[in-house]
Amino acid sequence: MTESDWPPHTYATRPYRQRTPRGPRADRMLREVTVALPPYIADLDLVLERPVAAMTTASAGALRHLDLVHGRTMAELNHLQLRTEAIDSSKIEHVEASLADYGRALLGIGANASAVSMASATQAMERLIQEADTSRKITSDAILRAHGDLFARHPDEAAGAGRFRTVQNWVGGSDYSPRDTMHVPPPPETVVEYIEDLVAFANRDDLAPIAQAAIVHAQFESIHPFIDGNGRIGRALIHAVLRRRRASRHLTVPIASALVAHRDRYFAALHDYRAGTPATIIAMLAASTTIATTESWKTAEALESIRQGWGKTAGSPRPGSAAYRLLDLLTAEPILNAGLVTEQLGVEDPQGTIDGLERVGVLSRIKRTRRSPVWVAPAVLAEVEDLSARIQDQARRLPYGPR
């Protein structure tokens, strides 16, 4: 079938009653809910129409080229891309924190709840991508483990971390019942079957990778298999599919940085998918991937320039020395403490080396971290912020802007 023949969601009315009466009377009195029933997609064919097919082919080709040139030799580029992706994916859910707080959360040092959530999103994404890379499969167990990572450090959600929902959920509308909603996912008893169908589709090798990743993501968001965290796990699935299909073997370009620039249009594209028009989300993902790939080339060049400049600033430390290796580490880990340096470099007492780089301005200590000192490399953090800003700026120039 062509993309224009993709089956739309159907809908069914089901009984509904609040488990614990809460909220306005209209919520407490709700007795029926209309749930969406996505099509089962494991065996569906997808023939892309020429314009969308050309976009996905060009996007995948550009991504592979970046990965071929920089993926194997610049592990630090992937670290920064992945962190940028996790930060901007969290922003789509209105979860935001400063880069310094985010770094402290990654180090396991006291940070606010938003920073911890962003750090957990990073861990969840890393797990899902890594398991897809090593096993060459997308599995429901991997999705559950990633969700466990996302909420393991959340005091209110830890009990449900890594478990599919067993109650009806909804998107938008009232906080107390599925009234005036944007989307009511399928009933909880159907979730496992839908997820198994989804992973069967995700593990196919006869589809264009970008289109496959887009549909996996859109279908996952329609199923909404968790009470919370669906958006972040769903966007991580995009990268898991691309890694499994070897569209990228090493890098995680920050696609969410483009999506966050068009948050309303992104949600509208998911609505189009439910109406039987997958071309919108496929084209949006292809364009976002192209932009993220293009801007990542610039970041790769910037990192090389920053590293060369540091060498001169630090007095050209001898290759293999603690200072030389720490400068290399900073391009991947621009927020660190002495413990991370010891762990990564095997230097038992790195404080002298850290202090030396702080004196010449390569490192700067974060304020209010006297008891547990944390340092940042301002030049690299500035590039992380600039990468996100450049992608968002380019995305806003595209014609698929908010309706």
From TrEMBL:
PROSITE patterns: FIDO. Residues 1-25 are annotated as: Disordered. It comes from Nocardioides luteus. This is Fic family protein. InterPro entries: Fido (IPR003812), Fido-like_dom_sf (IPR036597), Fido_containing (IPR040198). It comes from the Bacteria. Residues 138-288 form the Fido domain.
